[in-house]
Design brief:
105 residues; mainly alpha; Rossmann fold; 10% strand; globular
Length: 105
């Protein structure tokens, strides 16, 4: 889990550059077909950013921007952050005890 993931870090991962421990760890995880989640935090995006998102996705990573989910009706900033963290952890089949998955009903 790379959170937050800068555009630069995502670009290095997309191109296979391993100039830091973080990008090396992501590179090895992708090579070993392990789950890699990038919480890309920057906007607006231009075509180069989008191409890097496609590249890391094709390599097996999951791009999951920390976008607030207002359908959950958060009552505080902490609730917004907790919800983003819970969504990221859910991608690893982990759950926070105080959060619940959204289900249609």
């Amino acid at each position: 889990l790379v959170a937050p993931c800068s555009i630069r870090t995502m670009g290095e991962i997309a191109s296979g550059v391993t100039s830091s421990l973080l990008t090396r760890a992501a590179d090895v995880a992708l090579k070993e077909r392990r789950r890699v989640v990038l919480m890309v935090r920057e906007t607006p995006l231009h075509m180069g950013h989008l191409r890097n998102m496609v590249a890391v996705t094709e390599m097996g990573a999951i791009v999951a921007p920390p976008v607030p989910a207002f359908y959950a009706k958060p009552e505080s900033l902490e609730a917004v952050v907790t919800q983003s963290v819970a969504r990221a952890l859910d991608l690893f089949d982990l759950a926070l005890p105080e959060t619940h998955r959204w289900t249609e009903s």
